[in-house]
User: Which sequence fits this backbone?
């Protein structure tokens, strides 16, 4: 069956189809049968070589099938023989019009069928061969045409490139700032560029055919041997520096390069010399060396500590002041990181800061650094180091030792575990929990209750203890200056702003900022503060650049912020943002047990501030008055009372008269739970009276302080060990 022609026989009569099948097989053709016009059209795509098509068929007749075959672009050239019993001229014309190549009448004669099939198939083969030959010719013509076009395009491109190179060479020689000279193979001048004339003063007419110097020899002309080295042997002269005189007698520093050039055949045609004027460069280089020497002198002599780091934050250079402060040798510092030198706690904070510096930010912070001689408080400014292209290559830091100033201005918070009042202990427990995180904390409490004292205590317990702590009273800020105080301003931001100012948020970098009485902030500042809390960045007043700051924010107020939100005086979104962690500071009247501790701490601080030489003792009777008072002004009022008492007191003792406050309403000032009544029997000795008096006083103090020995000792004005000695001597046991 392989290689036989496939004939599609189309007839609606099964008998006729079967007859055609046997007849085609006997003629050595491979028959394919279809019972309708639709079926015949479906089978055309399976490699049919010729169609035997019956005319009279139901539905779609043979004429329509022939027309559809001829309209199909994939099968339009298939030979078609119409098989019909119609013999009229009109029917034969219809068959031809529909696209039939031939027709045969029924009943079909086998010999006639063989002749007609053979004739049409051979004619089809001949047409296919002619078509293939024509296609091959057309393809060959197309290839040759494309090759000619490509050759023409390449020639045109080469010509245009050559012309363009010539134009570029001419433009280069004309526009180049370097002086260009072209010599022939004998070393005679053939061309000088306009820059040569501008630099040296000679034009081509003055130097043409003359041998000019091109090697770094200030005294001699170039020799023929030197010309031969470049032109014949292909040697090059590159970057040699020498001096050359101009036509008007000036002496210039020149960098000279020389190389040979070739003609179109590739033969040496001469020599090209380029002279680059480096006079100004050498002058600037000398100035730069002098500037570097001055900078090194300043760097070495500076009293402030200066350090340089690369992008990996390893030290690359430090000045002697820093080596002296750290008590370390230069080799022990260079190449090391903060983690290797100062430990992980300091390194984490420094890395966070310097990562932002490497992004282009300048940051000033206050940090505590542990050295061999003890902790040192440093005011340090870090800024990026850039190369000539503007790329950041490292970090430069300048640090000033502020330890003494910090020591005189710092007021340490009292250790919370020593306060006996339960309300104080509860609040301080919340402070310790908050100190473990960087969350926003809101302190609520009456005015003067010590909210800033609790905020500072939180700062000193946190990981930011080495950083600065700032507190600002928002109620004391003028509305027109409040934004500048918090966020800083740029020069010219408003009338009187001559220079740039860094706000408290920026100064608190790496530390904490307490916004006291935050309820007093204007709506505009509330909105800007909310943006900072969400992004940790802000812009100075009058500025455009966003500044990122790593500072912990704490807030305090004596107002009911929820009511302020209801009345529209405080933003609701800011209130919820601040209320992440709320600590309520109890008023002083709810923690009277703490008054002896607070009073003594305040006295010590006031003594330093006032400048007294000794710290006065608060008499027990005066302490009783302090503990029995309501203190509507809270700790602030207590501080003022003690300051007045320090001024009035004599003989280094603060008496009830020095205190000068009235007791609670309804309380007899002559009676107090520390007052005692003694019934002295006859013949009682003075020693026995004193013994009983001591026992009653100690017992009453212990009861008042709920048997807290430390607090009772403070109340009595004795040491803790002394009180325990008295308790043992007087046989006092808990519960008496």
Assistant:
């Amino acid at each position: 069956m392989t290689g036989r022609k496939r004939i599609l026989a189309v007839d609606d009569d099964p008998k006729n189809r079967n007859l055609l099948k046997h007849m085609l097989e006997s003629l050595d053709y491979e028959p394919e049968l279809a019972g309708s016009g639709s079926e015949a059209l479906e089978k055309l795509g399976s490699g049919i070589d010729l169609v035997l098509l019956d005319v009279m068929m139901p539905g779609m007749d043979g004429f329509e099938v022939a027309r559809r075959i001829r309209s199909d672009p994939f099968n339009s050239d298939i030979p078609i023989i119409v098989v019909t019993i119609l013999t009229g001229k009109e029917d034969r014309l219809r068959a031809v019009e529909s696209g039939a190549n031939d027709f045969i009448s029924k009943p079909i004669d086998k010999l006639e069928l063989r002749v007609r099939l053979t004739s049409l198939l051979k004619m089809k083969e001949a047409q296919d061969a002619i078509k293939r030959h024509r296609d091959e010719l057309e393809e060959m013509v197309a290839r040759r045409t494309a090759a000619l076009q490509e050759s023409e395009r390449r020639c045109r491109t080469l010509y245009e490139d050559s012309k363009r190179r010539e134009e570029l060479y001419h433009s280069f020689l004309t526009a180049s700032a370097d002086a260009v000279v072209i010599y022939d193979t004998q070393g005679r001048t053939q061309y000088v560029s306009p820059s040569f004339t501008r630099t040296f003063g000679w034009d081509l007419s003055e130097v043409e055919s003359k041998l000019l110097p091109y090697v770094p020899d200030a005294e001699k002309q170039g020799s023929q041997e030197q010309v031969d080295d470049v032109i014949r042997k292909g040697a090059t002269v590159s970057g040699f520096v020498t001096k050359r005189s101009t036509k008007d007698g000036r002496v210039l520093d020149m960098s000279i390069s020389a190389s040979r050039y070739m003609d179109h055949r590739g033969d040496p045609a001469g020599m090209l010399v380029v002279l680059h004027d480096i006079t100004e460069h050498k002058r600037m280089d000398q100035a730069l060396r002098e500037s570097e020497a001055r900078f090194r002198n300043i760097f070495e002599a500076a009293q402030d500590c200066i350090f340089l780091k690369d992008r990996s934050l390893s030290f690359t250079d430090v000045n002697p002041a820093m080596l002296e402060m750290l008590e370390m040798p230069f080799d022990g510092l260079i190449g090391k990181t903060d983690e290797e030198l100062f430990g992980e706690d300091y390194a984490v904070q420094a890395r966070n800061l310097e990562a932002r510096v490497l992004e282009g930010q300048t940051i000033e912070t206050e940090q505590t650094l542990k050295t061999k001689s003890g902790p040192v408080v440093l005011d340090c400014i870090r800024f990026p180091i850039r190369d000539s292209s503007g790329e950041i290559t490292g970090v430069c830091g300048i640090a000033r030792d502020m330890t003494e100033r910090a020591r005189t201005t710092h007021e340490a918070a009292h250790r919370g575990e020593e306060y006996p009042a339960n309300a104080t202990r509860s609040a301080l427990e919340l402070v310790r929990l908050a100190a473990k995180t960087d969350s926003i904390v809101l302190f609520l409490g009456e005015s003067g209750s010590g909210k800033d004292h609790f905020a500072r205590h939180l700062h000193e317990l946190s990981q930011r203890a080495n950083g600065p702590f700032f507190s600002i009273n928002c109620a004391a800020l003028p509305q027109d200056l409040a934004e500048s105080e918090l966020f800083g301003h740029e020069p010219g931001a408003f009338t009187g702003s001559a220079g740039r100012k860094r706000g408290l948020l920026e100064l608190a970098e790496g530390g904490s900022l307490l916004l006291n009485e935050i309820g007093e902030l204007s709506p505009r500042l509330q909105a800007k503060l909310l943006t900072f809390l969400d992004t940790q960045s802000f812009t100075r007043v009058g500025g455009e650049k966003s500044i990122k700051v790593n500072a912990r924010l704490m807030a305090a107020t004596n107002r009911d912020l929820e009511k302020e939100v209801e009345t529209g005086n405080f933003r609701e979104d800011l209130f919820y943002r601040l209320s992440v962690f709320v600590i309520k500071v109890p008023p002083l009247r709810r923690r009277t047990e703490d008054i002896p501790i607070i009073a003594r701490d305040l006295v010590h601080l006031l003594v330093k501030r006032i400048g007294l030489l000794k710290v006065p003792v608060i008499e027990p009777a005066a302490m009783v008055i302090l503990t029995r008072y309501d203190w509507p002004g809270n700790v602030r009022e207590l501080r003022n009372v003690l300051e007045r008492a320090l001024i009035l007191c004599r003989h280094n003792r603060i008496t009830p008269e020095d205190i000068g406050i009235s007791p609670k309403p309804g309380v007899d000032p002559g009676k107090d739970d520390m007052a005692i009544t003694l019934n002295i029997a006859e013949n009682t000795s003075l020693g026995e009276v004193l013994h009983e008096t001591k026992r009653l006083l100690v017992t009453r103090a212990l009861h008042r302080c709920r048997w807290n020995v430390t607090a009772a000792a403070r109340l009595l004005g004795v040491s803790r060990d002394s009180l325990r000695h008295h308790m043992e001597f007087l046989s006092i046991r808990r519960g008496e």
Remarks:
- The domain at 411-586 is CATH 3.40.50.300 (Rossmann fold).
